Amino acid sequence: MPERILIVGLGNIGRRHLKVVQEVLPDAGLVILRRPGGGLNGLSGVTLVHDVDAAGAAGAEAAIVASPAPMHVETALALARSGVHLLIEKPLSDGLDGIGELLRTCRQRRLVLQVGYCLRFHPSVQAMKEALDEGCIGRVLGVQAEVGRYLPDWRSGIDYRQGVSARSDLGGGVLLELSHEIDLVRWMAGEISSVTALCGRRGDLEIDVEDSADLLLTFESGAVGNIHMDMLQRTAARTCKVIGTDGTLVWDGIKFTTRLYRAESESWAVLYDGENDNRDLMYSEQFKHFLACVGSGGTPLVTGEDGRRAVEIVLAAKRSAREGRGVVP
User: In terms of CATH architecture, what is 4-111?
Assistant: First the structure.
């Protein structure tokens, strides 16, 4: 079990990871890496450093990289070269540069590289995946996912125009910020073989990135899918429906419930009801899984390859929208 954990970045998601680490490993030494000028904002009992060399000198054995996406790979690669296991927030990056080298370095040094697509760790999503794997709805024919929420409501007390989600230089936009759904449909329906997309700025938000996107997907299995994502809906939405030859699975990502319809019995069953779950549950389970992989040398549920594939699909969607045609990611 790592005795010292490094957290890179102390924004909204960095603080959430810090809280989880303190709950799961209350006796671990904590190191925070922030850009020069960044402080601890009242935190105590942690070591503050301002560069990767100092972080390495602080003796961290594992790191959570929660800085803006364009900074992930450079920082992670430096840490990997120092032998540090990595849990990298999603998306893995905003482009493909350096990802291959990062993955090779982690393989060569036998380091865990896990990407933070935390939906896979919520019991409601795992219940849907288990039902699929058990053949409860037969052969998958299609998958539909939707996610949306009004950007100014995402983070209270913060000017949305200055946040990561609103700025292209920090890896913002719905395709990268809400790429959880891309990973989710891949996990449910298999590899994506083509992407056709419409995306752009359709609302009145003061941002320089796309505020909405619609993706039409084909899968190697022959299934089809679509994803809608936006920063515009005034009521939060998050759902996923998987349609099969023998039934349907429906996931509600706001209430964290999963339901199964079986055509044979013409009835619905609740597979999971997590309406009262702690919202940090999936982050806690994700971190525990990361620690288990570090301890055992096992392969994480969300690998670096999964992270790279999500970036490839995002880039394919952007290209499709620009060129007005389907793209093979």
Answer: 3-Layer(aba) Sandwich (3.40)
